[in-house]
Amino acid sequence: ETPATVAAAHEFVALLCRRLIEEEDHLTALDRAVGDGDLGTNLARGARSILSCGEELTAGNSLSGYFRDLSTTIRRGVGGTSGPLYSLLALGVAEGIGRAQEAPQLEDWGRGLDIGAALIRELGGAKIGDRTMVDALAPAVEALNGPAASHPEAVAAAARAARQGAESTGAIVAGLGRSSYLGQRALGHPDPGAIAIALLCETAATHLGA
Ligand code: ADP
Ligand code: MG
Ligand code: MG
Protein backbone atom coordinates (compact mmCIF):
# COMPACT_ATOMS: atom_id res chain seq x y z
CA GLU A 1 0.00 0.00 0.00
CA THR A 2 1.28 3.48 -0.87
CA PRO A 3 1.13 5.97 2.05
CA ALA A 4 -2.21 7.77 2.40
CA THR A 5 -1.40 9.97 5.40
CA VAL A 6 1.52 12.17 6.46
CA ALA A 7 2.26 9.78 9.34
CA ALA A 8 2.41 6.83 6.94
CA ALA A 9 4.58 8.79 4.52
CA HIS A 10 7.05 9.64 7.26
CA GLU A 11 7.06 6.05 8.48
CA PHE A 12 7.96 4.99 4.93
CA VAL A 13 10.65 7.68 4.58
CA ALA A 14 12.05 6.75 8.01
CA LEU A 15 12.37 3.15 6.84
CA LEU A 16 14.42 4.31 3.84
CA CYS A 17 16.54 6.49 6.15
CA ARG A 18 17.29 3.58 8.48
CA ARG A 19 18.31 1.49 5.48
CA LEU A 20 20.75 4.20 4.33
CA ILE A 21 22.24 4.36 7.84
CA GLU A 22 22.69 0.56 7.81
CA GLU A 23 24.41 0.80 4.43
CA GLU A 24 26.71 3.71 5.35
CA ASP A 25 29.94 1.71 5.40
CA HIS A 26 29.02 -0.23 2.25
CA LEU A 27 28.23 2.93 0.26
CA THR A 28 31.34 4.68 1.52
CA ALA A 29 33.47 1.72 0.46
CA LEU A 30 31.91 1.81 -3.02
CA ASP A 31 32.56 5.58 -3.27
CA ARG A 32 36.12 5.07 -2.07
CA ALA A 33 36.76 2.81 -5.08
CA VAL A 34 35.64 5.37 -7.68
CA GLY A 35 35.07 8.70 -5.89
CA ASP A 36 36.05 10.51 -2.72
CA GLY A 37 34.61 8.02 -0.27
CA ASP A 38 31.95 10.16 1.34
CA LEU A 39 28.66 8.93 -0.18
CA GLY A 40 27.72 6.73 2.80
CA THR A 41 28.49 9.57 5.21
CA ASN A 42 26.61 12.14 3.11
CA LEU A 43 23.47 10.00 2.87
CA ALA A 44 23.57 8.74 6.47
CA ARG A 45 23.97 12.27 7.81
CA GLY A 46 20.96 13.37 5.79
CA ALA A 47 19.00 10.32 6.94
CA ARG A 48 19.76 11.12 10.59
CA SER A 49 18.67 14.73 10.15
CA ILE A 50 15.36 13.55 8.62
CA LEU A 51 14.81 11.09 11.50
CA SER A 52 15.45 13.85 14.03
CA CYS A 53 12.99 16.23 12.29
CA GLY A 54 9.99 13.89 12.25
CA GLU A 55 7.83 16.13 14.41
CA GLU A 56 8.55 19.37 12.48
CA LEU A 57 8.06 17.63 9.15
CA THR A 58 4.75 15.97 9.96
CA ALA A 59 2.83 18.17 12.44
CA GLY A 60 -0.09 19.86 10.71
CA ASN A 61 1.38 19.20 7.28
CA SER A 62 -0.33 18.06 4.09
CA LEU A 63 1.20 15.14 2.19
CA SER A 64 2.70 17.34 -0.51
CA GLY A 65 3.77 19.90 2.13
CA TYR A 66 5.58 17.07 3.92
CA PHE A 67 7.60 16.22 0.81
CA ARG A 68 8.30 19.91 0.12
CA ASP A 69 9.66 20.32 3.67
CA LEU A 70 11.51 17.03 3.32
CA SER A 71 13.20 18.47 0.24
CA THR A 72 14.48 21.40 2.33
CA THR A 73 15.66 19.07 5.12
CA ILE A 74 17.55 16.97 2.57
CA ARG A 75 19.13 20.01 0.93
CA ARG A 76 20.39 21.19 4.33
CA GLY A 77 21.34 17.77 5.71
CA VAL A 78 22.86 15.84 2.82
CA GLY A 79 26.28 16.90 1.58
CA GLY A 80 28.08 16.33 -1.68
CA THR A 81 26.49 16.07 -5.09
CA SER A 82 23.78 13.79 -3.69
CA GLY A 83 22.22 16.49 -1.48
CA PRO A 84 20.74 18.79 -4.13
CA LEU A 85 19.82 15.81 -6.33
CA TYR A 86 17.87 13.89 -3.64
CA SER A 87 16.30 17.18 -2.64
CA LEU A 88 14.91 17.54 -6.17
CA LEU A 89 13.52 14.01 -6.03
CA ALA A 90 11.49 14.91 -2.93
CA LEU A 91 10.39 18.15 -4.62
CA GLY A 92 9.17 16.17 -7.64
CA VAL A 93 7.18 13.84 -5.39
CA ALA A 94 5.57 16.87 -3.68
CA GLU A 95 4.61 18.20 -7.09
CA GLY A 96 3.31 14.83 -8.38
CA ILE A 97 1.14 13.99 -5.38
CA GLY A 98 0.09 17.62 -4.98
CA ARG A 99 -1.87 17.29 -8.20
CA ALA A 100 -3.84 14.29 -6.89
CA GLN A 101 -7.44 15.16 -6.03
CA GLU A 102 -7.76 12.58 -3.23
CA ALA A 103 -5.33 10.20 -1.51
CA PRO A 104 -2.51 9.77 -4.02
CA GLN A 105 -2.45 6.51 -5.94
CA LEU A 106 0.58 4.65 -7.25
CA GLU A 107 0.34 6.61 -10.51
CA ASP A 108 0.58 9.91 -8.61
CA TRP A 109 3.74 8.75 -6.82
CA GLY A 110 5.05 7.52 -10.17
CA ARG A 111 4.37 10.90 -11.77
CA GLY A 112 6.10 12.65 -8.86
CA LEU A 113 9.20 10.49 -9.13
CA ASP A 114 9.19 11.10 -12.88
CA ILE A 115 9.13 14.87 -12.28
CA GLY A 116 11.94 14.50 -9.71
CA ALA A 117 14.07 12.36 -12.03
CA ALA A 118 13.63 14.93 -14.80
CA LEU A 119 14.73 17.74 -12.44
CA ILE A 120 17.81 15.68 -11.51
CA ARG A 121 18.72 15.20 -15.16
CA GLU A 122 18.18 18.90 -15.77
CA LEU A 123 20.29 20.11 -12.84
CA GLY A 124 23.03 17.47 -13.05
CA GLY A 125 23.11 17.22 -16.83
CA ALA A 126 23.58 13.44 -16.67
CA LYS A 127 22.09 11.15 -19.27
CA ILE A 128 21.72 7.39 -19.09
CA GLY A 129 25.15 5.83 -19.54
CA ASP A 130 27.06 8.65 -17.81
CA ARG A 131 27.62 6.36 -14.83
CA THR A 132 25.52 8.18 -12.23
CA MET A 133 22.46 7.56 -10.06
CA VAL A 134 20.42 8.38 -13.19
CA ASP A 135 21.37 4.93 -14.57
CA ALA A 136 19.34 3.31 -11.75
CA LEU A 137 16.69 5.98 -11.24
CA ALA A 138 15.57 6.48 -14.85
CA PRO A 139 14.81 2.81 -15.61
CA ALA A 140 13.15 2.41 -12.19
CA VAL A 141 10.83 5.35 -12.80
CA GLU A 142 10.11 4.09 -16.29
CA ALA A 143 9.17 0.64 -14.94
CA LEU A 144 7.02 2.22 -12.23
CA ASN A 145 5.13 4.20 -14.86
CA GLY A 146 5.00 1.33 -17.34
CA PRO A 147 1.98 -0.68 -18.53
CA ALA A 148 1.53 -2.28 -15.08
CA ALA A 149 1.57 1.11 -13.35
CA SER A 150 -1.54 0.62 -11.25
CA HIS A 151 -0.46 -2.83 -10.10
CA PRO A 152 1.90 -3.50 -7.15
CA GLU A 153 3.99 -5.53 -9.56
CA ALA A 154 5.18 -2.21 -11.03
CA VAL A 155 6.96 -1.47 -7.74
CA ALA A 156 8.80 -4.79 -7.86
CA ALA A 157 9.62 -4.19 -11.53
CA ALA A 158 11.01 -0.76 -10.61
CA ALA A 159 13.27 -2.30 -7.96
CA ARG A 160 14.56 -4.89 -10.43
CA ALA A 161 15.16 -2.21 -13.06
CA ALA A 162 17.06 -0.06 -10.54
CA ARG A 163 19.29 -2.97 -9.51
CA GLN A 164 19.96 -3.93 -13.12
CA GLY A 165 20.72 -0.32 -14.06
CA ALA A 166 23.03 0.07 -11.05
CA GLU A 167 24.94 -3.13 -11.81
CA SER A 168 25.31 -2.06 -15.45
CA THR A 169 27.33 1.00 -14.39
CA GLY A 170 30.27 -1.26 -13.53
CA ALA A 171 30.84 -1.71 -17.26
CA ILE A 172 30.70 2.04 -18.06
CA VAL A 173 33.61 4.45 -18.36
CA ALA A 174 32.39 7.58 -16.57
CA GLY A 175 31.47 10.78 -18.39
CA LEU A 176 30.40 12.98 -15.46
CA GLY A 177 30.97 13.37 -11.74
CA ARG A 178 34.07 12.64 -9.73
CA SER A 179 34.44 9.08 -11.00
CA SER A 180 34.99 10.50 -14.52
CA TYR A 181 38.51 11.43 -13.41
CA LEU A 182 39.20 7.71 -13.05
CA GLY A 183 38.32 6.81 -16.64
CA GLN A 184 39.11 3.16 -17.36
CA ARG A 185 40.08 2.53 -13.73
CA ALA A 186 36.40 2.71 -12.73
CA LEU A 187 35.66 -0.35 -14.86
CA GLY A 188 34.40 -3.24 -12.74
CA HIS A 189 33.18 -0.90 -9.98
CA PRO A 190 29.49 0.06 -10.04
CA ASP A 191 28.55 3.70 -9.46
CA PRO A 192 27.89 4.13 -5.71
CA GLY A 193 25.06 6.62 -6.22
CA ALA A 194 23.28 4.17 -8.52
CA ILE A 195 23.70 1.36 -5.97
CA ALA A 196 22.16 3.62 -3.31
CA ILE A 197 19.12 4.13 -5.55
CA ALA A 198 18.80 0.36 -6.07
CA LEU A 199 18.92 -0.24 -2.30
CA LEU A 200 16.23 2.38 -1.74
CA CYS A 201 13.98 0.96 -4.47
CA GLU A 202 14.36 -2.57 -3.08
CA THR A 203 13.52 -1.38 0.43
CA ALA A 204 10.51 0.51 -0.93
CA ALA A 205 9.29 -2.54 -2.86
CA THR A 206 9.57 -4.77 0.21
CA HIS A 207 7.69 -2.24 2.36
CA LEU A 208 4.95 -1.68 -0.20
CA GLY A 209 4.34 -5.43 -0.29
CA ALA A 210 5.20 -5.92 -3.96
P1 ADP B 1 30.48 13.89 -4.40
O1 ADP B 1 30.82 13.35 -5.74
O2 ADP B 1 30.31 15.37 -4.40
O3 ADP B 1 31.35 13.37 -3.31
P2 ADP B 1 28.39 12.09 -3.45
O4 ADP B 1 29.46 11.16 -3.00
O5 ADP B 1 27.39 12.55 -2.46
O6 ADP B 1 28.99 13.38 -4.16
O7 ADP B 1 27.57 11.44 -4.64
C1 ADP B 1 28.22 10.76 -5.66
C2 ADP B 1 27.16 10.23 -6.60
O8 ADP B 1 26.45 11.30 -7.18
C3 ADP B 1 27.75 9.48 -7.76
O9 ADP B 1 27.99 8.12 -7.42
C4 ADP B 1 26.68 9.63 -8.82
O10 ADP B 1 25.72 8.58 -8.75
C5 ADP B 1 25.99 10.91 -8.46
N1 ADP B 1 26.30 11.98 -9.40
C6 ADP B 1 27.46 12.64 -9.56
N2 ADP B 1 27.35 13.58 -10.52
C7 ADP B 1 26.08 13.51 -10.98
C8 ADP B 1 25.31 14.21 -11.97
N3 ADP B 1 25.85 15.19 -12.69
N4 ADP B 1 24.02 13.85 -12.15
C9 ADP B 1 23.47 12.86 -11.43
N5 ADP B 1 24.13 12.17 -10.49
C10 ADP B 1 25.42 12.49 -10.26
MG1 MG C 1 31.51 11.26 -2.92
MG1 MG D 1 32.28 14.55 -1.80
TrEMBL record:
<feature type="domain" description="DhaL">
    <location>
        <begin position="7"/>
        <end position="206"/>
    </location>
</feature>
<protein>
    <submittedName>
        <fullName>Dihydroxyacetone kinase family protein</fullName>
    </submittedName>
</protein>
